[in-house]
Amino acid sequence: MHLTQSDEPCTVGGEIVHALHGRNTTECAHAYATGLGWPVAAGHRYRRQAGCTCHDTDTAGPCPAPGAHPRTVPVDLLAPADVTPVFNTEPGAGIITVCTQFDGVTLPHVLGLALMLVLDRQGLYTPCLTADHTHATLLVAPGTGRRLVGAAPVTVHSGPDAWLALPPSHGMRWDNPPTLHNPLPNADAIRPHLERAARIAAR
User: Fold this and answer.
1) Residue 168 per-residue DSSP state
2) Beta bridge partners of 104
């Protein structure tokens, strides 16, 4: 995939570049929407002194994911042309995507990183994001995540009603970022490695 000069922050020569490793939410949101073709929305924002912006309208209790959750469910997705203007006016907003281009498989942090070590040794490229050292989420081919249920304690996010917060939403980081030339693995290819990683983590 080659983009126009105006889209340079997303890709160069078919590669996702520095944007996904940076903290600029506009560049990252643009990279997800235009470079990878993922639907995105602007989520709540984390403020150092005041916490999550969801408290401006809802003070029922502490926010479980400050600055890393959608404003509405179902998620109100942006048209690709609106992504940059919206995030330019809302710096620091969380970046939310729905799980239509992939399934997200969330594991406890230790187990997720153990699995990533195993997959790396096997040469099986799998994007993985982490959240505040509490859990890790692997991205697999859409519709296949359920095949990992039962192999380990996992939560599967799949379909248009499921969502994930993407880096650099507050607390979110890429352990292994997505690329254009590496297709997402089918979950069947990961299952035996997940079972092995679960045994390693149990030690």
Assistant:
1) T
2) 139, 157
Q: What is the DSSP track for 11-25?
A: EETTEE-GGGGSS-H
Q: What are the C-alpha distances in Å from 48 to residues 31, 45, 67, 183? A: 26, 10, 10, 37
Token digits for 6? 């105006």
**pTM for this model (two decimals):** 0.89
CA–CA distance, 167 with 180 (Å, rounded to integer): 17
Taking each helix axis from N to C end, the angle separating 109-122 and 187-202, rounded to the nearest 10 degrees, works out to: 120
Residue 61 CA, chain-centre distance (Å), reads: 25
User: Going by DSSP bridges, is the β-strand pair 51-52/40-47 parallel, antiparallel, or unpaired?
Assistant: antiparallel
**Tens-digit pLDDT profile for residues 49-82:** 888 999 866 666 789 899 999 999 999 999 999 9
Tokens matching residue 68: 């890393």
The tokens for 174 are 């890429």
Contacts of 183 by beta carbon, 8 Å cutoff, 6+ apart: 141
pLDDT at 133: 87
